[in-house]
Specification:
126 residues, alpha/beta, Rossmann fold, 5 helices
Length: 126
């Protein structure tokens, strides 16, 4: 399942992955990004990875093409998961994206949402 939630006014997108990802769910995520980009130059994103199941090869291919054509659409991205390999993999690929990217555990989901929306909460108070 790939669940998509967005806040058009804030330019905020939240994706939750929990099991098998179908191509129609993936397309809903792409459509949500494209819709938000009509009114925002960049988006703040939270991706919650609870469990990753089977993902069709067609989805992987579409995702690669999507990222090639949407290279600079993210301002801040919070990747939230308790899966041990998600954090290291995210940090390995983060330098390839011109965005602020941080990883969080599931117990930090609310903080991750706030960070994605406004950045470093301690600095925002200064």
């Amino acid at each position: 399942m790939l669940k998509v939630e967005s806040d058009a006014k804030a330019g905020y997108l939240e994706l939750t992955v929990d099991g098998v990802v179908h191509k129609d769910e993936y397309q809903q995520a792409v459509d949500a990004v494209d819709e938000l980009l009509k009114t925002h130059e960049q988006l703040n994103v939270v991706e919650v990875v609870r469990d990753i199941g089977w993902i069709d090869a067609e989805v992987w291919w579409k995702d690669l093409l999507f990222h090639l054509s949407h290279r600079n659409f993210v301002h801040r991205a919070a990747v939230v998961s308790d899966n041990g390999w998600i954090g290291p993999m995210t940090r390995m690929f983060a330098p390839f994206y011109p965005a602020a990217i941080r990883t969080f555990g599931l117990d930090q989901l609310e903080y991750a949402r706030q960070w994605a929306k406004v950045g470093d909460l301690h600095r925002a108070a200064d």
